[in-house]
Amino acid sequence: MTRESETTADILVAGGGLGGVAAALAALRRGRSVLLVEETDWIGGQLTSQGVPPDEHTWIEQFGCTRSYRRLRDAIRDHYRTWYPLTDEARARPDLNPGEGRVSRLCHEPRVAAAVLDAMVAPYVSAGRLRILYGHKVVGATVDGDRVRAVTVEAADGHRLEVAAPYVLDATELGDLLPLTGAEHVTGFESRHDTGEPSAPDEAQPANMQAFSWVFAIEHRAGEDHTIDRPAGYRDWARYQPPKWPNPLLSLSAPDPRTLETVARAFTPNPAPAPFVADQRADPGDKELWAFRRVLSRNLYRPGFAASDVTIVNWPMIDYLPGPLIGVSAEERDKHLAGARELSMSMLYWLQTEAPREDGGTGWPGLRLRGDVLGTTDGLAKAPYIRESRRIEARYRIVEQDLSLTVRGEAGAVAYPDSVGIGMYRIDLHPSTGGDTYIDVASSPFQIPLGALLPVRLRNLLPAAKNIGTTHITNGCYRLHPVEWNIGEVAGTLAAHCLDNGLEPEQVHADGARLRAFRSELVADGVELAWPEIRGY
Predict the structure, then answer these.
(1) In whole angstroms, what is the distance from residue 72 CA to residue 395 CA?
(2) Could you report the per-residue pLDDT of 389-425, keeping only the tens digit for each?
(3) InterPro entries of this UniProt entry (predicted)?
(4) For a pLDDT cut of 70, what percent of the chain falls above it?
């Protein structure tokens, strides 16, 4: 039987991903009490429980993120310097990249990021001002007119808790609070008629969403056999060829996201050291799959410490396309989740048994799952990697024309008078459940407008993750790690600011003096509001 109890906090943050953690920390720094709800037993979302090293822009080591996000990055590096037997040369590198991965200048084990985030929130837990409900999900809400009065959360054992808070922040991975609160929101593709976006389709496609992926971690032990049991659906996945895909999904070939030309990827476990600089502007880094998202490089540690590198498999070959997780029944959702897990294990089995090697042989049976890196026993991440969420209908909607390099050219992205942060990434959309292939559009370094964080109606609900007022297209560059953190930090700061000053978010946004005061508060806290003069890619 479901038991119910009640609790209160100044701010409820639903979802412990990067946006949720940033929101909680911002509010806690301002003396507020926070209740944070997280479905898994790790905070950090895409960085930790979903197993994805940070996707970041070219200039991240110099500028282009908030001070608190930089503190997170520095703390991850310090963790390795403090506890790992790095070589003297590696330890001395100010830009230490523990995995020497090509996707980012900071590739690291998800469990290290989880430990660092735990340390960042620990003082507030000790002080009794932060309560984290692990293993809980939001299941209901009480709404009175245009205000959310309470949110119901549920544990795995069925126990329910009703949480009342003056401000409710939705940092869930799929925007779960939006339908529960009746917030106006959208899903999938908007139409070109609606948004005017060059990359949008003629007709809206609300059920057509980016693929999600269930990532896993592996190492390679030469001479050993760690072949897993063949997944039940392996033969079906081995034959599966998605629409507009040049070959079966289980292969080492896939379209280049930027040109759509078919490109054969290299795969060489534990390659010899090779100099490179992770730079998304010059090279997305995905042509050599082992080094692409490598999170531990044995070459950086004292001889004999690590027998193998560890790499994260988050490749095009495990993008799950048969259906979305939003707008379907619970049974259909569970089917897709199970299907994504089976696809990922089928990819591993194919690599172990059938993948072509350069020496003419087939398979790498020495590939071994490293679930410990992800905090699991089965080798898969704790949760699927989510690229696209429900999105609020906002007071300002960010469209492709605001930041597309082709559209904006030398003018750069639109400068918003209500900017509350910045970000940069190409408009990077993976293949979608409706059969579309990649949409990958060059973009200009962009700003985050406060209006995109304000729902058109609800007065005390704020988005704090990938659910702000973007479109399907612009979600492709606002969904990355430092941008999600910036969004969450602003949402938490805004909620605390409103409580401190007896205001509502719309009052802050609508009044020039109040908006300037709020933006000044953000700047003082290390939030960058504008870019220097640089060109996108």
Answers:
(1) 31
(2) 999 999 999 999 999 999 999 999 999 999 999 999 9
(3) FAD/NAD-bd_sf, NadB
(4) 99
Q: Which two tokens stand for residue 143?
A: 């709404």
pLDDT tens digits, one per residue of 2-34: 667 788 999 999 999 999 999 999 999 999 999
β-bridge partners, 536? none
Question: 101 to each of 60, 104, 137, 493, how far by Cα in Å?
Answer: 15, 6, 33, 33
219-244 confidence digits (pLDDT tens): 999 999 999 999 999 999 999 999 99
Q: How far apart are CA 356 and CA 320, in angstroms?
A: 23
Quote the CA–CA distance of 263 and 255 in Å, as a whole number. Answer: 6
* Nearest-angstrom CA–CA distance, 476 and 53: 17
Quickly count: other Cβ atoms within 10 Å of residue 152's Cβ.
Answer: 17
Q: Token pair for residue 485? A: 């953190």
Bridging pattern class, strands 147-155 and 34-38: unpaired
The answer to whether the CB of 36 falls within 8 A of the CB of 89 is no
Reported as type and span, the H/E element at residue 342 is helix 330-353
Q: Which helix H or strand E contains 449, and what residues bound it?
A: strand 446-449
- Residue 100's nearest CA partner among 294, 305, 298 is 294
| Tokens coding 7 | 């609790």
